[in-house]
Each structure stands twice: as structure tokens, then as C-alpha cells.
Amino acid sequence: MGTTPRLRAARRLFTKRRTLGYPAETGLGLESRTTVTARPEPPLTDLPPRPPENLTVPERTERVKASDLVVKNLGPCRYESPIKERLGQRALHHVGDAERVLVDDRLSEFAGRGALVSEMPTFELAGPRDRLFFDPKTVRCGIVTCGGLCPGINNVVRGLVLELTHAYGVSQIFGFRYGFEGLVARSGHEPLRLVPKMVGDIHQKGGTMLGTSRGSQEPADMVDTLEKMGIGALFVIGGDGTLRGATKILVEAERRKMSLAVVGIPKTIDNDIHFIDRSFGFESAFSAAVDAIRSAHVEATGARNGVGLVKLMGRHSGFIACHAALASTDVNFVLIPELPLRLDGPRGLLNHLDIRLAERGHAVIVVAEGAGQDLCVDPPAAAFDSSGDQASGPIATWTKESPPRTDASGNVRLKDIGLVLRDRINEHFERKGTQITLKYIDPSYQIRSVPASPSDSIYCWNLARNAVHAAMAGYTEMLIGRWHGRFVHVPLPLATRFRKQVDVGEDLWMSVVESTGQPVGFA
């Protein structure tokens, strides 16, 4: 389907306003699937403050140099790989001579480099190496899972254990319990000795068999445990905070002159780690969210002036909200953290909701948890449990005076935009004397606890086996990512340098706008 003249105009205005340093919202609504009454658009005045930096893919790739992509290696590889005979020499990469994957694969960028093509930033292709740094017969490996739950963690743990055992013959594999806590002796969490039989069916379940926790620990205490146990390779499954913690472990190990390979497998349900096409569990999460949206649509269409409101995960990035809305096709408004949210005024959400209900008699709204935080008040401490997650049961009255709070990982605890929207929408229509029926659905914990989808299961296996290949060859301070459809080695400092967000001037957001018929922005 081609773009409409209104969409092309919105894109041109987005580009112009970005150049001027203003947000990209245009206030230009797109026609919904049915004909609506055209209304004149108000002039572009009272521009909102410029939002935090939101780098596009080209912008962040332009900031990357070839030297940023060099992956550390512990030293010479003296051991022949035991998988050479099974896979064949053609399936293996020679150590230090693997194929490279361009960071920026645009033809214009490639042509512009001319004779400097050899200096273009490239990722090293992942995969088995012909020689190893570690002796598989003696090396000890550790696995730790940190942060919030996410579909596919068990799949990754299982994949690591099976690949280490069956492909390389590693017999000493330990799972550290409850995140980085398990690496601190005084926590009392004894490591699990992992064998294939123990992990045989864990991929059929959500969560993590090792347990998880939030928060950092002293690097010296964690390395004490690793050194005492003689761990040579540590596989860290977690998001950007966890990966930063892994870097601190490595710094301490290097200070002690330990030969420790630290390899990350990126876990973030929000899909917000840079230079990774997709994080594992993301597809499972937005697929599960479609069921919640379907329920909201049924509720909305079952009542006169019915409104279904669904809050989905997305602290700083609205990828789950966007993809779930596109997959369901029943959503009329998507609200994400990357765009400011105004409720009142001619361009505000409430005015557009007025029009939608007048024309169609129902509406479905999907909001990412990090959207519209400036519209919220701060929750009291009683609203959260000790881990920083929202507590169940009655919540005390929220006040503007409540100080901002953080969870155990240092993340600012988000205010509940879902409850704010629920109340503001109800109040708006009460003032108008219009009766509506609003149903609010928050499926966050259901979404993150489901088993991995078939597609994610395949993805998790490939992440796990490539992580093992990298660690056995002595690569360290890196994670396994997929870039342009190929599995690559991504240095940890680069992966945690930026936060990936929805580019509101590019195709993903424009496809949402075309699908829902909503304006490009509500401000």
C-alpha cells in the first residue's frame, strides 16, 4: 500500500522540525479505515519542549568507529576444536579471520567511503572457531540470569548447557542462583551443578530455573567466588544494567590477571539494546499482548461508547506497544515514551477520542508504561514490593509530594500512566455528560512469564550456541547479537552506549500511524 499525501506531509514536517530542534509531532491526523468528518487543523503553535535525545539507526551508526568494534580475546588459542570433525572444516571460522558484517549496510554510505571501504565499521561474524583458548576437558563454566523475567530465559540456559556438554565435552557447568546475589558467598545461594538431564524440559516453562534478582553486587565479592570455583567462562543473561555489571566483573578479573571470558546474552523484553535487531523474548511478549488487546476490543465493542485501555511494558521504548498494535489490527491509539503526550486541547488525545467515539462508538488504546510520565503523580513506597515491582492489593493515595523512588537496580520507578489515563478519560466524559464504559487491562506480568514462542525458541538456541563458541575461543567483554540477520560479536561497551528507541520518523512508527488512523503525535 502506498503512502497517502497526508502521511508524506507528516514525514516532511517531521524532518523539518527535527532540523529546527523541535519534536516531530505534526498534529496531522490520518484517515481511519472508515470515513470521518474532516476538521481543520489548528496552527502549529505552543511547541512542547524538546524531548530527550532519540537517536535514529543512521545517527547511532554514524557515531561508531571501526575501533569500537574490536572484541577482546584472552590470548592464543592452543586447543583444536572437538567439533571440527562433526561440522567439517568449512563450517568453522579460522581464529582471527572471521567474516565481517557491515554496521551500516546502506548503499549510499558504502559508495561514499570509496577507497576507505576497509576502514568501514564492521562486526565480527559469530560462529564456531577452528581452535580454542580453553581446554574443554578442564574448563569450568558458569551461568547467571539477572533482572526481570522474560520469555526464553530457560531456553537460553538449556541451550548453553547442551552445547557445552554435547558439542565441546565440558562437564563442569554451574548455575548461579538468583542473579548476581548468587555470586556472593554470604548470600548463601549454593550454585547448581547443571547437566543435560536437569535442563531437558525447562524450555517448556516460563521464567528461569536459576532464579533472578535485581541490583548490583560488589565486583570484588563476585570475582572472589569465580576465582575460588575456578570459573573460566561466565555466561551472563540480562539487560543493559546486567551487562554493565558484567563489565565490572571483568574489570576486577583483569586487575587480578584472571583468564575469565565474560559473554553476554542480551535479555530485555523492551527490545531496547542497541546494535541488536531483536532481543530474545520480545516476539513472545508482544504476541502474548495481542491476546490482551483482543479482550480489550471485545469489551469495547460490547458496550455503547466502549473504551478498552491496555497498558504494556516499555519503560523507555515503545516497541512492544507498536508491534502488538500492528499484530492485533484492532488498536486505534498507540501511546509511546518516545513522543510527548497531551490530553487536552485540539491536538490532545481526549479530543481525538471524542471524534472516534462519535463516529465509531468504541475505541481501543494501547499505552506503553513509560509514556506520559509528566502527567502522573508519584506513588508511595507502599505501592511497590522489595524488588521494585508493583505490589498487589490496595495502594495508598498518590501525592505530588511523594519523592521519586528507584528499584534495586537503580531504575526510577515509573508512575502508572494506565491509571492516570483511566481516570482522566472517565472524568472527561463525565464533564461532557457522555456515558462511556471503560475497561482497563494491565497484562504485564502475564506477558513476561509466558514460555517462548517457536520463533523465539529458535532464536534463543542460536544465541546460546554462538555464545558458547565465542567463550570457548577466549572472546570476552562481548555479547551475541543479530545484526542485518547475521549473528555477530558486539562489544559490551558499544551495546550499552545508547538506548534503542522507536524512531518516530521512520517506517515502524509510520506503519502504526497508518494502521490505527491516529495522528503522528498528540501534542
Number of helices: 16
Mean pLDDT: 84
Largest sheet: 9 strands, mixed
Provide the helix percentage: 25-40%
Shape: elongated
Distance between the termini: 28 Å
The strand count comes to 17
Structural class: alpha/beta
Beta-strand percent range:
5-15%
Biggest sheet strand order reads: 3-4-17-16-10-9-6-7-8
The unreliable regions are 1-53, 392-401
Radius of gyration: 25 Å
Map the helices and strands.
Layout (H helix, E strand, L loop, with lengths): L4 H15 L37 H6 L9 E2 L5 E2 L3 H4 L12 E3 L4 H7 L8 E4 L5 E2 L7 E6 L7 H15 L4 E5 L15 E2 L2 H4 L19 H11 L1 E8 L1 H16 L5 E6 L15 H20 L4 E7 L6 H10 L4 E3 L13 H12 L1 E7 L48 H16 L4 E5 L2 H5 L5 H19 L2 E2 L1 E6 L2 E6 H4 L11 H10 L7
Parallel strand pairs: 6-7, 6-9, 9-10, 10-16, 11-13, 11-14, 12-13
Antiparallel strand pairs: 1-15, 2-5, 3-4, 4-17, 7-8, 16-17
Helix pairs in contact: 5-14, 7-8, 9-10, 10-16
